[in-house]
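tl;dr need the bound structure. longer version: we got a ligand (zinc ion) that a collaborator sent over and nobodys looked at where it sits. i said id run it. heres the input, straight from their email, havent touched it
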Amino acid sequence: MTDSNISFINAAEKTNINSKKNTGDVYVLAVESSCDETSAAVVRNGRDVLSNIIASQIDIHKIYGGVVPEIASRKHIECINPVIEEALRKAAVTLSDIDAICVTYGPGLVGSLLVGVSAAKAIAFAEDKPLIGVHHIGGHISANYICHKELEPPFMCLVVSGGHTNIVEVENYGKYKVIGRTRDDAAGEAFDKVARTIGLGYPGGAKIDALSKEGDEEKIAFPRGHIEGFPYDFSFSGIKSSVLNYVNGCNMKGEEYNRADIAASFQKAVVDVLVEHTISAAKEYGYTKIAMAGGVACNTSLRKEMQEACGEAGFKLYYPEAVLCTDNAAMIGAAGYYEYINGVRHGYDLNAVANLKFE
Ligand code: KG4
Ligand code: ZN
């Protein structure tokens, strides 16, 4: 990359998969640019990642304490072509080997989404290949298909990212039913806001995760959000305010507060609710396979508590490796492959939809 502020990784470096195309293989080129990662990947048959290039803008946005949409779109424009070229090069394929172009068209930042959608449309048009718009949440869920070759629907999935918190019935490939959702902040958003409150910087999820290991998770009783009559919905705005009040209270009294205790107690409260709701939803709806997806699915405490709860209930738990939990194009290629197989095709009028619904 020409811009030294942008780190550029191939998240499929370890896979070492032979890219030779056999008869019947379906190769998709996938593009993801919904927030602050520009990513392109080549995925075979929805499961094998031949390349997964991610240009992260985190170093730029952390100066501002969060993603600045206008800067994000401009950086996507700079990165999109080199990232796509690198994805093809690392996969050792050319566009003529590609069967379909898949792209995230929502939800996300509209200016960011538009860059990926425009690039994908241009390639699909120029190469006369099918174009497939992919829902970002379906992408997160499908990251599990890459990491767990044996995983097939139906299963229940907890989607926890910076923008979403949903409990989803995955009835079939590309067929979803949301049975629980956040009423306010997403879980990742709460992590990021609390991290900012205690001075950890952006993005805060991984920092809270690390600092929590030094803290006492029983020290502060932060509230667990429940919505009367909606046992699978979430609310994280109360706990966020509660952390803020705690910190302000200490400051006003001139008392020192322990950031590690705050991080650990906050994390425990969020994880408890995520685990409790997911397990009871799986029991109620009769699922024995549970998956997790999205950036917060990297959280070590969530993984541990969910694993324990699944063990007790006799459920099998799946989650993607960390680099496939956060935004990346390989997950869009996995979801897009199944859309392709199901006959989904989009026209050149495909548009970016910032608040694309997920039902
Ligand atoms: O899935 P993702 O990359 O983007 C969205 O689609 O939103 O998720 C990013 C979110 C951020 O809020 C980040 O703080 C959170 O995932 N995150 C974590 C951890 N790693 C990333 N939250 C808790 N613990 C982590 N280890
Ligand atoms: Zn995401």
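gonna send this back to them w/ a short note. The longest helix spans residues 259-285.
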